[in-house]
Amino acid sequence: MILQKPFILDNMAQDALGLYLYSLKQDKEPLPQASRPELLSLDKDSFVTLVEWNEAAYLKHTSNKAIKKALTIPEWMNTIAEEKNINFRQTLQEALLEKLEA
After folding, report:
1. 72 pLDDT exceeds 60?
2. H-type helices in the chain, by residue range?
3. For residue 42, which of 17, 34, 35, 46 is within the disulfide window of CB 3.0 to 4.6 Å?
4. In whole angstroms, what is the distance from residue 47 CA to residue 40 CA?
């Protein structure tokens, strides 16, 4: 049970940071530079902790709404893909994920 508190606090900090950074991005405002812990002045009972931020992981976790997109491909590619029963939606999602994670 004791191990859950840091985990919960880390998740809360990641959610708070994610919400803040996402709102800045939506408003087309610049993202702030990360602080350098050694340059911060702290009260005697204060401490510094790092909060990890991964935009793709945050969006995957918080925003799973499906968006419809139109796609234009060469006719020959469409013909062969349909003959092979390729799922266009799934293929596009897999290809985009591969590109985003690269």
Report:
1. yes
2. 4-26, 55-62, 75-83, 88-101
3. 46
4. 10
Place of tokens 């976790």: 61
Maximal C-alpha separation, the chain: 69
Whole-number Å distance between alpha carbons of 29 and 49: 25
Q: Which two tokens stand for residue 45?
A: 């009972």
Q: How far is the CA of 64 from the CAs of 28, 51, 76, 96, in angstroms?
A: 21, 23, 32, 15
Sign of CA dihedral 9, 10, 14, 17: positive
Structure tokens of 53? 């931020």
Q: Is the pTM of this model over 0.70?
A: no
Q: What value, to the nearest 5°, has the Cα angle with vertex 55 and ends 17 and 94? A: 155
Quick one: pLDDT at residue 45? Answer: 83
Q: What is the pLDDT of residue 15?
A: 84
